[in-house]
Predict the 3D structure of the following.
Amino acid sequence: MERKFNWPRITLAFLIAVFLFAFGLLAGYVAKEYIQGASLTLEETARNEIIELETIYLLDSQFQCNTEALDITSSKLDNLGELITTLEQKKGKNDQEVLGLKKIYTVLETRHYLLISQRNKQCAQKYSVFFYFYSNGEKCHTPTKEISTILAYIRNKYDFVRVYSFDIDLNSDIIDFLKKKYGADSCVTVVLDEQKINFTPANAAELEAYLLKSRNNL
């Protein structure tokens, strides 16, 4: 028995398949171009923030104990950290541009910390400082996320708190120095006012207790 083919239907199905395939390629290309464009914009914004931060640091050195410049640098440093986190999510943790920006960010964080330390010694302002060392390794994802959330909560609750985050996997002499000084060799290490502390990751109240106790000793 001779089998008859419905050529119009087969042709239509073939054309639909070709269209869907081509549309998928086009959509992928457009998405890639959009992501690359957005990443370049973020990189440019981050670099502009870095330039402004450097300038404000110079201005701040001329007006010691004035809180305005320090407040601006604190805000810009937080904004820069968020930009780098967004870039890291878009381009990947091992992207060379992202790693380069993180190295610069590490330098700026360290300089900001030195400003804070100077204020604590010379001015009436008293700040509590957290160093947060973390690893981007896959096995460290859960603890770093938990403690990042707690530290963000503490930072937003208390105006006198500063949090400096350092990626221990970053190829940086500053990171290597700080890692050795504070013994930061695990997924997460938290240092509060020069003292390495241990606390339950899910317990923000315990960390607050450490903070308030340390605060009394400033």
